[in-house]
What does this fold into?
Amino acid sequence: MGPTRSRRGHTALPRPHTSTGRLRLLEEPRRPARIRQSSRGHWYVVATVCIGAFMGQLDASIVTLALPRLGHDLHAGIGSTEWVALAYLLVLIATVATVGHFADAFGRKLLYTYGFAVFTAASVVCGLAPSLGVLIAARVVQALGAAMLQANSIALITEAMPRPLLARAIGVQGAAQALGLALGPAIGGLLAALGGWRLIFLVNAPAGALGLTLGFLLLPRSRSRRAIGRGDTSGAALLALAVGGPLAYLSLATRQGFGSGPLLIVLAAGVAAAGMFVAHERRHTHPLVRLSMLRNPVLSSGLFSGLVSYVALFGTLFAASYYLSAQHLAPSVAGLELALLPAGIGVAAPIAGRLAHRTGTRPLTAGGLILTGAGLLLAGLLHPALLAGLALAGLGLGAFTPANNASIMAAAPDGHTGLLGGILNMTRGTGTALGMALAGVLYTAAATASGASAGSSTPAAHGLTLVLAALGAVALATGLALARRRRRSSATVSWVTPSRPAAVHLRRSGIDHHGSVSTRSPAPLHAAPDPGARHGSRVRT
It folds into this structure.
């Protein structure tokens, strides 16, 4: 049975006509009838996705705490042990967009649930690893599972939620991520004290089993899929190198030096791969990423401002942790003070999600970054107000993130939500590495200029001032630019309602984030329609 034509003339991918053998493994199972008919079925999707969001952030933060003890038990030095964290980060960021591309073709529920299985199995292997080599190899597989989860999390929410509730749902997911980030150090310390570093990995097994079960039972089958064509393996390889090269350079240069010859070669290879990737995607019949899609101003400005937000978040956490350590605070006290930043995100994100449908996303995205910049400047220039500044910055990021993510995903062309979700998560990982590298450079420069050790209190204060002032200025400038741009734009986004089951309409003069309906006729997306997209289906199964 070949592809069929829909009423709009697009190629519809047929579902497998058999449920036996290997083909059954490629089918997305239907939800139970009781779940399908529930009026709260879309919130069950959010709850399931929040498990993966919480696990991902928790795992990223607790593993770092275990590295010293892990290296001691496995008789490995710092240079070798850091690859336990770095290998995971590199593979995750380098593959998450490609995984999203395949999810758009094979099904987002399918890859998300299999992602739980891969992540959980690899976590068990990590916990039982007899050597550092086995542990790093298992971390690579674990990162692939995490990519399958992260690429599809926001895409699943986008497909399941009515558009008026989209920002609210993404706000709940953002709160789960912030909670995982905030609780990571405390939970990691407790687990390490109870059972050593192996327990940190093994604890993922029951949580992963729960997520896998709920994924099969509560997640709907993909409503829109697109033909994958011949596949773009060359594009996937070039994208992995283009992202992985600079990321490896930023992650290692703070310890090995930014002028290190081998690292400069890695950086040059990544930059060259990026240029080749752009040229390749423009020529390919079925590209991995439709570059014309990124000319949409909602997507380009949203991805850039999202990058800025993660640079500010992780750069601040990096610098503040060193500053608090130099104040000779107990680790438990320092951890609680640092938790104010992600706690602020967790408090503000659900509230901002509720407000987005009433106010539009423009006040939240621009205002959130402005508030973040003001909080960081306050904390950097007035150290007694550090805690207040961190809390203020967290509230700003909590207001910004769900509104920004919702506007990006609402603008995704049909059949591209998985890919766009992967790109969004790739931006987050890049911002994480860039923020920590930038903070490391500025912090060290301030310590060197003071003529004292970076671990003493005076240079630590100088380092904190320089880092937070720089990050605050960037966040503030970006927020003001967003506000000016949105104010000049006369275009609007039409939010999807049950009576208007179309995707977001993009107006000829650009995009505004007010969420109101324009009466002018819509202009087409910059991205050409995918001939393999499945349109018009709103059935949730």
User: Anything to note?
Assistant: Residues 1-19, 490-540 have pLDDT under 50 and may be disordered. The two ends are 22 Å apart (CA to CA).
